[in-house]
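Q: Structure for this?
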Amino acid sequence: MKQPTNTPETNRLPRGVRLRSAWNTTAALLILAVLLFPVYWMLNTALQPDASIAATAWFPTSPSLDNFETAFSTQGRSLLTSLGVALGAVVVCLALAAPAAYGLAQFGLRGGQGIVFTTLITQMVPGIVIANAMYSAYAELGLVNSYLGLVLADASLGLPFSIVLLRAFMVSIPTEVVEAAMVDGANRFTAFVRIVLPMSRNALITAGLFTFLFAWSDFIFALTLNTTDDVKPITLGIYQFVGAHVSDWGAVMATAVLSAVPAAILLVVAQKYIAAGITGGSVK
Amino acid sequence: MTTITSTAPATATGGTSASAHRAPRGRRLLRWLFVAPALTYMALFFGYPLVNNILISFQRYTPKTYFTGEAPFNGLDNWRAVFANELFGDALWHTLLFTVGSLLGQFTIGLALAVFFSRRFRLSGLVRAVLLLPWLVPMVVSAVVWRRILDQEHGMLNSVLHAVGLVSADGVPWLSSPSVALLSAVLVNIWIGIPFNMVILYGGLQEIPRDVYEAAALDGSGPWRTFRSITLPMLRPVITVVLVLGFMSTVKILDLILALTSGGPADSTQTLGTVTYQLSFLQLDFGQGAVVGNVLILISAVFAVLYLRANRADFGKGK
């Protein structure tokens, strides 16, 4: 985007180029239609009240929100659970990641590079292995079937990513800014809270959004660290819903639509951060 | 990816701060307080499982263990049992097919789209952004949607293929035939992984200086030649990172398969991930589950080393 858009060719053949641009746009929209078809199909099925077991019509000619009503009444609690757990995970994750990232970015700690390396590597530990080993500890601590247990586990999904992302940002904060505040009598901690955190707002938002999304999408911890239905996030809810009500596809798809809402919001609200997030943290 | 590079210069001045009157040792300790909570948490949630998983793999867990709390050590029994189990070999093979198939598809299509979107045209940025949606939606949810699409009798895919005349009225048993189910899982996972590959490769393409292409054009190099002699070689560090990261996230996939096929039909979609889950949480034999988990970690570790080496190469060139 930084490059000038005019190649020598553009100046000579504006009309031909414009034509090619239109052709490319058409091709792009076609690609979009093919790749996003499942998303359309999810919406389409959700909007058709009698999309039960028989084949679904191509378009929702008489759309209704009946399925969404069913989805809310059967899965509403799970949606709330997911919301609570994901928000909790964001709080835990940022509270741990922000000071750590600052420390790693600005203090020149001995072994700091090693810590960043280790942080990158932890993203490679399979979730099922963590669940497998954590289960017995959770059982002993009484954390199975608890919100706290799931929040703590889900926070691990965003922590390495957040540390790496925030650290990359905080490296660029000039040390003089913090030192100036400390000359004025602030200690390291208050300087961090009053100066560094506000300056890092955008990076914190990005890290928080991704952590929210990871926690919202979590299935493995929801499945393994809960043996009853007390704490049932929406991913687990929809999984059981499909198993039990496989004939009511309209309601299942309405639930699917609802559980995709955070992804859609993230796409609209934080669009510019996403590419940075994917490449910067090298996640998933 | 470039994050490891920049610590040194920024931190060199960190020591000469206003709090210099305090004892340097105490100050150093105070600084660690910023990092300590996160480190403790990571030790508990990543370090402990890695160690404990190795220990558990030498212990005998039974459903009774959860009443008595006793899990006696049993040497190599779990390992022998797992390696003797035919399902383990099958799962290993399925994991390999699933991972390699997914990566090939995701990468090829992702690269093609990245190259395509590098052209300048109207709506390019917007379309690129919207294409990310499949990657952001929870994997279980995607899998459930695909389960509906791939349904043999009432699924949309079969009715279209039948209407076009490609398949008979019976349709393809996408998820219900042992010989097709794994392929279906691979196709769905390719769909999920395309955005990730596209975004990173697109970023890599933007880093290649324009004048290299102009020079190639002056030399009369055609598009294919340019792609092979300039784009691919210059993109290589990014390609390595994409493939290694893709490998590590694909090899451990569990939610997609559980929601799509639950490992069936006839265990044809069992992978190391699903077998670990099944052994530990359905058969409640955490010892044997840990063995399979350790194998999974070992495989990931090999690629983690590759990743670090690729990063170092990237780092050396970048700065």
